[in-house]
Amino acid sequence: MAEPEKKTDTVRRLVREHEYRSALRIVKDFRLGISRDDLDAMRLAYECMVRPVFYSQLGRDPAAEVKRGIGVLVRLYGSERR
């Protein structure tokens, strides 16, 4: 019987497949091994993807926040390291 896929492996697979929204949905709840700044960037990117109008009203640039968060996501989970 195969072992279930670990969340970090799922995130890496989703990043390889360019499924950033799905990857961010998972990683935004991670707690360990990620700096506060990186985690905040990924959380904000996900929130800007699902609520862009709200964040625009707060004076944020949702597209820029998404780009920044995806950059962090790819930097952290875009390689095949274990």
SSE order, one letter for each helix or strand? HHHHH
Provide the gyration radius in Å. 13 Å
Percent strand equals: under 5%
How many helices? The count is 5
**What helical percentage do the residues reach?**
55-70%
Please tell me what the overall shape is.
elongated
Overall pLDDT confidence: 92
Low-pLDDT stretches are none
How far apart are the first and last residues' alpha carbons, in Å? 22 Å
Query: How would a textbook summarize the main sheet?
Result: none
Class from helix and strand fractions? mainly alpha
Report the strand count. 0
Topology (elements, then pairings):
Elements: H1 7-16, H2 20-27, H3 36-50, H4 52-57, H5 62-77
Task: Write a brief caption for the model.
With 82 residues, this protein is an all-alpha fold. It contains five helices and no strands.
Protein described:
This protein has 82 residues and is an all-alpha fold. The protein is built from 5 helices and no strands. It has helices at 7-16, 20-27, 36-50, 52-57, 62-77. Helix 1 (7-16) packs antiparallel against helix 2 (20-27), helix 2 crosses helix 3 (36-50) and helix 3 crosses helix 5 (62-77). It is elongated, with a radius of gyration of 13 Å. It starts with 6 loop residues before the first helix and ends in a 5-residue tail after the last helix. The mean pLDDT is 92.
